[in-house]
Amino acid sequence: MSSNRESFMHGKQLTKVFGFGQQKVTAVQAVDFDFHRGEIISIVGESGSGKTTLAKMIMGLLKESSGTIEYKGKTRQLKRHAERKAYWKDIQAIFQDPFASFNMFHKVEKLLLDCIKLQGLQLTKDERFAKMKEACSFVNLKFEELYNKYPFELSGGQMQRLMIARIFMLHPKVLIADEPTSMVDACSRSTILDMLLKLRDENNMTIIFITHDVGLAYYISDTIYIMEKGKIVERGTAEEVILSPQHPYTKQLIADVPKIHEAWNLG
Amino acid sequence: MNHSIRILLKSPKFMIGTIVLVLMIAFVLIYPFINTKDPLEMMALAFQPPDSNLLLGSDNFGRDLFLELVYGIRTSMMVGLIAGVCATIIGLIFGLASGYMGGFVDNFLTAITNIFIVIPSFIILILISVSIDSRSSLVTALIIGITSWPWTARAVRAQTTSLRNRDHVNIAKISGHSTSRIILSEILPYIASYVVMAFVLQTASGILSEASISMLGLGPYNTISLGILMNWALVFEAPVAGAWWAFIPAAFSIAVITFSLYLMNTGMDEIFNPKIRS
Ligand SMILES: Nc1ncnc2c1ncn2[C@@H]1O[C@H](COP(=O)(O)OP(=O)(O)OP(=O)(O)O)[C@@H](O)[C@H]1O
Ligand SMILES: [Mg+2]
To answer: How many CB pairs under 8 A join A and B?
Structure first.
């Protein structure tokens, strides 16, 4: 691991304030982070702690109220469309709710066709189909069964796996996965986690895994950030944070999970 | 989309409204080919009651009121349709820009919209009509259109604001699609049924607005519309002469057309709204 512990993404004092006056909500407050290549980082916190807001700022989908993000040694600039497009070539995401992630008016294969277009590849119809088939088989889906279908004809687990197939086609450098397993059943959950691990191993992808589940974070990640009410209260390697927590909030999160020390049974 | 149309065909309200309108449009489009006379030609004495020759009697100039009514319905429907299209397009553009872009653009456009909502549009309508001398029915339709878009704009803005933070929009953004493409393919389809409903209502209110300003004598010149028929009946004292046929049929036609449009709208509302909410 030490060979690729090259730090390439930093957040400095990231803050997001929603609304103003009486309704002011500081969703994310002075968050610092360092992400390394090929690492799986978990951001753990309870509902409303600001995880999604932080993720959207890192994605460049929400403008930060203050603070900066440094990417590849430079301060990230996202004013122009071309800059954003270049940034999103490197950084991709999977969201919490697979049903909301699909445009219900488009057939599902459009998601994958858009990936081919995005990469600017000029392919024949057969080549496009081959690419989409390959991506689907990576996530254990049969392309033939999905072809020509609308999102409402799919299950949540199938949709979320298609989102991973999209990531497989785009092979970004960083993937932000915002609670990708919170809306799917236990069986799909373990396959989805395995696929994320496989993506990291095959492409040296950095994965930022957002979850409210400390046990899951311990199982999957190298580094854990604990978030409480918009602040990072503790960070460190998974072992440090879970096995010898320092902050009372971390201790409480761990205490709330029964039998954390037993191995996760992910069949 | 095909799916939605199929459900619509099962809605009795929508179907009744549509059938009445379609029959009416077909009739007023075909009848002038059967009866090719000029509607402004004098046929009889003034205020003759309906008989087998003049189905709706004659007006103060002795013109065939039935023929005038047919032409009046044509003009009124055209004016309503053009006003509806115009109001819907302006409202859609303002609402989409304001809702999707947010920030300064939103504040600016919302301020303009609110100004238009606060000033009663009928007053603006009268002022503009007075200041334009030669109004064709097209000009009248456009004036009605540009005074009635704010409600559409406000509704479209509200829907767009709630849609733009949805995850499928985020996925489209991080896929590098342009803003115009995102609006066209990620936002517009979700509000399309709503926009069609707003268009139907705008058309109905366009027909009513035309009738109102025409009754005040501020409607289009050199044409016959339902409002103008009512205006003539008023100016030449048809009610005093007891010539009910000079204004009742026109008023009834306005009622039937707008009622059919409202029926269509309610039918669509019942079908699309649960889908929008879910
Ligand atoms: N667009 C917004 N406008 C105003 N407040 C917001 C907005 N988005 C989030 N918030 C507020 O910011 C806080 C953090 O929300 P966020 O969605 O980031 O939490 P989360 O950790 O992702 O929660 P969950 O686990 O439920 O997804 C919440 O108090 C929320 O009400
Ligand atoms: Mg969240």
So the answer is: 50
The structure's pTM equals 0.85
Query: Is residue B4 in some structural domain?
Result: no
Within-domain flag for B220? yes
Q: Region B189-198: what's the mean pLDDT?
A: 91
CA dist., res. A1 & res. A20, Å (int)? 45
For residue A28, the ligand closest to its alpha carbon is 1
- How far is the alpha carbon of B111 from chain A, nearest alpha carbon, in Å? 19
Task: Indicate which residue's Cα is closest to atom 6 of ligand 1.
Answer: A18
Number of structural domains (chain B) is 1
CA distance A170 to A173: 9
Contacts of B178 in chain A (CB under 8 A): 81
Q: Evaluate: CB of A53 within 6 angstroms of ligand 1.
A: yes
**Cα A210 to ligand 2 centre (Å):** 8
For residue B186, what are the domain limits? 17-34+55-277
CA distances from B166 to B158, B162, B220 (A): 14, 7, 46
Which residues lie below 8 Å from residue B87, measured CB to CB, with a gap of 6+?
A: B144, B145, B146, B148, B149, B152, B202, B206
Which CATH number is B242's domain given?
1.10.3720.10
Instruction: Say what the pLDDT of residue A1 is.
Output: 42
Is residue B226 within 8 Å of B250, Cβ to Cβ?
yes
User: Count of CB atoms within 10 A of residue B126's CB?
Assistant: 17
Over residues A180-216, the pLDDT tens digits come to: 888 788 778 888 899 999 999 988 899 999 999 898 8
Nearest neighbour of A118 by CB, restricted to B1, B166, B176: B176
